[in-house]
C-alpha cells in the first residue's frame, strides 16, 4: 500500500472498504490526472457534477474574481450579496411559474430537506410520500424518503408518516390524499438505475397532487442543468413541480444546492416563528459565483443539443451481446448488462484503459454513463467503442 493510500485510509473516514482510491493531481476538461501520471476520461462527471468539464475557464475566473471581493460575510438571507441574487434571477428566468424564488443551500440533500420542510410548513400537513427505488440523500429527512429499506433500516426510527409508492404505477397514485403534505420524486430515478418516469404517469402524478392539494417536489439534483437534453428533465414531460430541487452540476464543481418555489409558499419560512429555516453557509458567494458563470456558459452554448448527440451516439454504438438495455435521456444514461460479473469486468477493463465508469447506488448490473457535456465528439465515440470492446472481450467474442 502506498504511503498516501495508507494515510488516506487512516485519517479520512471511509465510506466503504473499497474506495476507488485514485490519487488526484489535477483535473481539466474531460480528464482526471493522477499523481502517478495516469490520465482518465471522466465518463461519470464526478457523478453528474462536472457537466461543463473540470475547471471550466469561465467558472474558474468567476471563482477567482469572487475570492478577491469577499468570502462568507453573514448567514444566508441577511445581507444583500449581488452574486446570489444575480444567480437566483437568471435561474428563475429559465423556469416556468410558480418557480419564481430560490432558496440557496449547500448540497443536494439539504435542498430536499428544505423542500420537505417547506411543504409541511406551507400546507400544515405532515404526511410525506415517495417512491420505491428512489434516492434523495443521506441526511435523516432525505433518507426517510429514500426508497431502499437496506439504507434506511440501520437508522430507524426515521421521519414518521412517510409512505412509499411504486414508481410508474398509476394505481398507486390514488394513495395520495388530502392529508398528504408532499410527494417527492425524481423524474428520472438516478441511483435507482437511471429509470425515466413514464410520460403519462408523471402527468397523472401532477394532476393527482393538484386535486388533493399535495405539494409536488421534483428532485432534479442529478437530472438538472442540460444533462438530459432539456435544461431540466421536467421539460420532457410538460409538467411543472411546486418545488424544484437542484444541486450537483449547478455550480460547476463547487458545492451548492437550491430549492425553487413560489414567493407565496416561501412566505411560510418567514413567520411563526421567524427564521424557522436558516443556514450559515447556504449560497456561499464563491459557489454562487461559480453557479452564475456555469449558468451563463450553459445558456450560451449548445449543451442541450450536445446531450442529445451523446445519447444518439451511445444508442448507435452500445447494442449487441451482453447488453440488456440502454436507458435514460440525453447524457444521463444507464447501460444495463446481463449480470453482475460482466458489469464488474467491463468497469474494470475500462478503468485499466483509462476510462472512469461507475455503478449507481441501488443496482449492480448497471453502468452509469454521464460524460461531461463538453466532451469532444471523437473522444466520445472512441470511449463508447472501448466500452463496447470491453463487453465483447469480457464475453470472449472477437471484435
Ligand atoms: N438526490 C439525488 C437524485 C441525487 O442523485 C443525490 C446525490 N447522488 C442527492 C439527492 C443527494 O445530493 P448530495 O450528495 O449533494 O447531498
Number of strands: 17
* Gap between N and C termini: 36 Å
Strand order of the largest sheet: 4-12-11-10-7-5-6
| CATH class category label of the domain at 58-300 | Alpha Beta
Mind explaining what this structure looks like?
The chain is built from 14 helices and 17 strands. With 399 residues, it is of the alpha/beta class. The chain has a domain at 58-300: Aspartate Aminotransferase, domain 2, CATH 3.40.640. The radius of gyration is 21 Å and the shape is globular. The model has no long low-confidence stretch (mean pLDDT 97). The structure holds 4'-deoxy-4'-aminopyridoxal-5'-phosphate (PMP).
Summarize the structure.
This protein is α/β, with parallel strands linked by helices.
Keywords:
single chain; 399 residues; alpha/beta; Aspartate Aminotransferase, domain 2; seven-stranded mixed sheet; four-stranded mixed sheet; 17 strands; 19% strand; binds 4'-deoxy-4'-aminopyridoxal-5'-phosphate
Protein topology:
Blueprint: H1 3-11, E1 24-28, E2 31-34, E3 39-42, H2 45-48, H3 57-69, H4 82-92, E4 101-105, H5 108-123, E5 127-131, H6 140-144, H7 149-152, E6 162-165, E7 180-185, E8 188-189, E9 195-196, H8 199-212, E10 215-219, H9 234-237, E11 243-246, E12 257-261, H10 263-266, H11 285-300, H12 303-317, E13 323-329, E14 332-337, H13 340-352, E15 355-356, E16 358-360, E17 363-369, H14 377-394
Parallel strand pairs: 3-15, 5-6, 5-7, 7-10, 10-11
Antiparallel strand pairs: 1-2, 2-3, 4-12, 8-9, 11-12, 13-14, 14-17, 16-17
Helix pairs in contact: 3-11, 4-11, 12-14, 13-14
The structure holds 4'-deoxy-4'-aminopyridoxal-5'-phosphate.
